[in-house]
Amino acid sequence: MGDVSLGLLELQFLTGLALGCIFVLVATGLTLIFGLLNVVNFAHGAFYATGAYLGVFAFGLTGSFWISLVAVPLGMAALGMAIEKFLLRPLYGLDPSYPLLATFGVGYVLVELIRILFGTDGIPFSAPGAFRGSVLLGDISFPRYRIFVMCATVALLTALWLFIEKTSYGLIVRAGAKSPEIVEVLGVDTSKVWLLVFAIGTAVAGLAGFLAAPMRGVIPEMGVNVLIEAFVVTVVGGMGSLAGAVIAGLAMGVIISITSFFAADFSNVVMFAIMAAVLLVRPQGLFGRLDAAR
Q: CB–CB of 271/282 below 8 Å?
């Protein structure tokens, strides 16, 4: 393989990592909600789209990408808290199909609201001025904004890991996920824990949508494909496994990017083929528990 081909391969690899970061963020919110609340959230793709539109709206008001970057997770967290408190909480303990159908309805309503408020056509949204253009990484030129997305993903995942693994509130969250009855006996109000978890998952999904806006466009249906991709990543990584979501998301991004380089016609089906292969060998996913897959 010549130097030019090797450079293109390296570029596809980095492009795949940037795409994988979006997969990771969306799948992290999805698996966080499923792993701790046992809710299959079909509104997650709509949260992703809502975050993108909320960011575009905030940018239109303020003209600041950074203010929008803060406003999106805060606004989406507030939305997630309202949905969890008034819609999902009364359904806990009932048949799992009830919260599933409820989130499906929420997703449908959110997309229709986006169409009413912003129209059915897409909205152009470019990367902020500081992240336009490319930088040289060795012999290849790589977009600055994609590097920013990768750095932002690392920072967000690190903060999330520190919160869950190193704080007393994170300990309560993990304990509540395994045995909510014992946590309640100890005097902890688990309803506040679930509220926080759903808010974090919603905020991360919305932030992923806003970060992806300059890369993948802003249209009302943008959450449909990403919901499918997020479910594939979550299933491959293992339902409820944050580590699995991270590794599977990055791997899927790279595999799709490399496949599109060698055989573009297969780039849309390769992730489903991988999911089928993984499920044949490990039904619980690469890092999941068998009881979570049942």
A: no
DSSP annotation of 167 reads S
- Please report the beta strands in the chain, taking only residues with DSSP state E, as ranges in sequence order: 134-137, 140-143
What confidence tens digit (pLDDT) does each residue in 181-226 have?
Answer: 777 777 777 788 889 889 999 999 999 999 999 988 899 999 888 8
Over 90: is that where the pLDDT of 51 sits? Answer: yes
What does the CA dihedral 290, 31, 39, 210 come to, rounded to 10 degrees? Answer: -160
pTM given for the model: 0.89
Mean pLDDT of the chain: 87
**242 touches 165 (CB < 8 A):** no
Bin 40: left if φ > 0, else alpha if -120 < ψ < 50, else beta.
beta
CA distance 289 to 37: 15
Cα separations (Å) of 43 from 1, 29, 64, 73, 121?
45, 11, 28, 16, 21
Q: Which pLDDT score, from 0 to 100, does residue 230 have?
A: 86
Question: Are 106 and 83 contacting, i.e. CB atoms less than 8 angstroms apart?
Answer: yes
- The tens digit of pLDDT for each residue in 145-161 reads 999 999 999 999 999 88
Which residues 6+ apart lie within 8 Å of 189 measured at CB?
Answer: none
**Two tokens, residue 233:** 């990543």
Residue 251 tokens read as 């791997």
Alpha helices in the chain (DSSP H): 3-37, 44-62, 65-83, 97-118, 144-166, 168-178, 180-185, 190-216, 222-237, 242-262, 270-281, 290-293
The CB density around residue 55, as the number of other CB atoms within 10 Å, is 27
Residues in CB range of 80: below 8 A, 6 or more apart: 47, 198, 199, 200, 201, 202, 203
Please give the single-letter amino acid code of residue 84: E
- Residue 259 CB: number of other CB atoms within 10 A? 20
